[in-house]
Design brief:
7-stranded parallel beta sheet; binds nicotinamide-adenine-dinucleotide; about 40% helix; Rossmann fold; alpha/beta
Length: about 400
């Protein structure tokens, strides 16, 4: 049986929801290279949001059809692409599961930018509708299919709330004494800092419920901020290039700094830069997913939660590192977010390390920073510079304060 099998010994059929995105595409390639049979599902909503924001990936990404064909040429391995909206096309999703009988579904298909989720009423409502309905549809479809499909979800470190636990953040659960004196292990309290992070907390409750009620096997990965752009697979052909977001809404912090450094524009640090965050390189994102898929929880086991991070780093220190490397200035902006100005962050990642992950750490891999810099410089003429600055504010008052400051 599956659970008796040694980890990673048999290729699996894997549906990757959101497989056209920044994490999903390189992960799909890696899973395919490892011998798994990969089906990518994506509704291309992220590409449509590019159009909405008037700013697209710094790197010129090809259509999903071209990407999949290029991979076949390069690797001799086929992958399929299915255009489907996980939050809306429920019947198509169930039919896909029944027809393909996947061993696992990796779920990346959510609106993932915190700033975008705070932009306005439209984006707040879209983020909740899309993310919560998508996750619920996925779980209902697994139940309805009657198949024992392992669900692997990409969650975020942000569900824990930063700097609230006052010690090392455990992997998903905390031991407590309930009122009345009974010891228990419960989900770590959720303390989201944006509408986007709130959807990830709601996802966690959906996983807990369907796991308890229907016995669905779920792995929830609380990932840190991803940096880097190439992986050993995406670098094999220019048509396989990964997307690179640099704008105020989707550009995540280290990549945005490196890109600003490459273009000679000041690094935009919010507040003092005293925030500590968890980080992981994109190559390790793909590795972690493969490890998670190869190590499903046992039947009847509760939701398995891993912290998917390599290290924690302070935003201001990252800015200084990039500034030294590139000679650009640091522009300290009033923080558009509502968050602690300074926080410590200590995170357990023993589970992935125990399963063999030896993560890429920034200090000993500064060459990877240069690699991102080279990519950013190569496509500099595609950059719309005015899109780099923050364009979303956590509330009206914060927006007014930020405007008064500029
Ligand atoms: P992304 O926006 O680049 O990719 C998400 C993909 O999902 C896009 O291609 C989009 O078109 C697709 N999608 C969204 N809604 C869909 C729907 N209803 N139906 C079908 N497809 C849909 O984001 P990413 O950076 O690759 O992030 C992927 C996941 O990893 C997210 O869930 C995110 O929360 C998590 N994550 C990302 C980071 C990071 O730094 N990028 C950090 C922590 C966690």
């Amino acid at each position: 049986t599956m659970t008796m099998m040694a980890a990673g010994s048999k290729p699996k059929k894997i549906v990757v929801l959101g497989g056209d995105g920044f994490c999903g595409w390189p992960t799909s390639l890696y899973l395919s290279e490892k011998g798994h049979d990969v089906i990518i599902v994506d509704n291309l909503s992220r590409r449509n949001i590019d159009n909405e924001l008037g700013c697209s990936s710094l790197t010129p990404i090809e259509s999903p059809e071209t990407r999949v064909k290029a991979w076949e040429k390069v690797s001799g391995r086929t992958m399929r692409f299915v255009n489907l909206d996980v939050a809306r096309d429920y019947q198509e999703l169930v039919q896909l599961f029944l027809a393909e009988k996947p061993d696992a579904v990796v779920h990346f298909a959510e609106q993932r930018a915190a700033p975008y989720s705070q932009k306005g009423a439209k984006q707040k409502r879209y983020t909740v509708d899309n993310n919560v309905s998508g996750t619920n549809n996925l779980l209902v479809a697994v139940v309805e299919s009657g198949l024992d499909i392992h669900v692997v979800h990409l969650g975020t470190m942000g569900v824990y709330g930063y700097g609230t636990s006052g010690g090392e953040i455990p992997e998903g659960y905390i031991d407590v004494i309930l009122p009345g004196g009974r010891p228990s292990s419960i989900l770590h309290p959720a303390y989201p800092g944006s509408v986007y992070h709130t959807t990830k907390c709601l996802d966690a409750l959906l996983f807990q419920f369907y796991n308890k009620n229907d016995g669905i096997r779920v792995t929830d990965l609380h990932q840190g901020i991803v940096w880097g752009t190439n992986t050993p697979q995406t670098i094999k052909d220019e048509r396989l290039i990964n997307r690179f977001d640099y704008d105020g809404d989707y550009g995540t912090v280290l990549n945005r700094f490196i890109m600003q450094g490459a273009l000679g524009v000041p690094l935009t640090v919010y507040g003092t830069g005293g925030q500590t965050r968890g980080f992981i390189h994109i190559t390790d994102t793909a590795r972690c997913i493969e490890i998670a898929v190869s190590n499903p929880p046992q039947a009847g086991e509760k939701v398995q939660i891993f912290n998917q991070i390599a290290e924690t780093l302070r935003v201001g220190d990252l800015a200084k590192l990039v500034a030294e490397k590139t000679g650009v200035d640091i522009n300290y902006l009033k923080n558009p977010r509502l968050e602690s100005a300074e926080n410590e962050l200590e995170v357990a990642n023993r589970k992935f390390r125990g399963l063999g992950l030896d993560p890429i750490l920034l200090d000993s891999n500064l060459g990877l920073v240069d690699e991102v810099k080279t990519i950013a410089a190569k496509y500099a003429d595609r950059c719309v510079r005015e899109k780099i600055l923050p364009a979303s504010f956590w509330n009206r008052r914060r927006e007014a304060e930020c405007e008064a400051n500029t």
